Amino acid sequence: MPGDRRAVSSNGVPIPFTDDLFAPLPDSGALLGDPEALRRRFHDDGLVLLRGFLDRETVLSLRGAYLSAFPEGLLKPGSTPEEGVFSGRPPEGLPSHGVKDHPAYDFVRTERFTSFARQPALTELAATLLGGPVRILPRGILRHFYAGSLRASRAHTDHAYMSQGSDRVLTMWIPVGDCPMETGGLVYLEGSHRESPERFDAARLTTDRAHDSRPISHDLQLTARVVGRRWLWSDYEAGDLTVHSPHVVHASLDTVTDVMRVSADVRFIRAEDRVDPRWMREWAGDDGA
Predict the structure, then answer these.
(1) What is the pLDDT of residues 20-70, one digit of tens each?
(2) Is-contact 271 130, C-beta < 8 A?
(3) Of the candidates 141, 148, 244, 260, which lies 20 to 30 Å from 268 by C-alpha distance?
(4) CA–CA distance from 84 to each of 65, 80, 141, 178, 220 (Å)?
């Protein structure tokens, strides 16, 4: 694998890749034929990884369609949109990610993205894990990271951003393209859904977002050591997905490869439950939710 796994980073803050801080995220795909066992794993672990759950070529086609929408200059010469190799410099005049007139803002509003998010396989999986009929939340998100930005998702729980509705909700994180650790995939704090929010108070004192109480910290090593738990990691491939509960602490690592990370967040809730109203409208990068 490319990169140096003696140390990785998130938001520019290094974290040693050691056994006391990291452990492999197990694949739960073998449980797909046993819905009760899969649901029990999801409840016990707060998440499941399902390798090859989606058709690889469909995922790569979605990646290509999105990256094709950018102005010339984003892709390295000779790279195809499906490969998504970064040129090293974003196109001039490109709006902030996800705001109006940025390709991600437009793409989540296309029939192509909507059909992908609403495909029956995802709805059926959500119904299995939530134990009943579900509905999709309209606010589907497309994230995009590239080397040099030193930007990543801070340690957080989804519940902190969805607190005005039911917590019988789940997130499907879908890497839109191959996403080894060095490309900035998600990491999950093992067993963190069983911790009280107060257990993370010491980590919250170290933050690069003092104005926002929702993230726990941008320092993943500190977050792990405060509660004595490891980050679960994986080398994801196109077709894989993870599903996590709103109470699991997770974050992402910095993208340090030439290949850009693109991913989709798709969320489902029990059909009869109250939805946080902020998630009933389509996503925009500056919507504050």
Answers:
(1) 999 999 999 999 999 999 999 999 999 999 999 999 999 999 999 999 999
(2) no
(3) 260
(4) 11, 6, 19, 10, 27
* Beta strand residue intervals within the chain, DSSP E: 7-10, 13-16, 22-24, 47-50, 134-136, 141-145, 169-175, 186-189, 231-233, 241-244, 250-252, 261-270
Helix/strand/coil percentages in the chain, nearest 5: 25, 25, 50
Distance in angstroms (rounded) separating the CA atoms of residues 82 and 65: 8
Element spanning 227, H or E: helix 220-227
Lowest mean pLDDT among 5-9, 110-114, 228-232, 263-267: 5-9
> Which pairing describes strands 141-145 and 169-175: parallel, antiparallel, or unpaired?
unpaired
- Rounded to whole angstroms, the Cα distance separating 70 from 90 reads 10
Query: Are the beta carbons of 289 and 98 closer than 8 angstroms?
Result: no
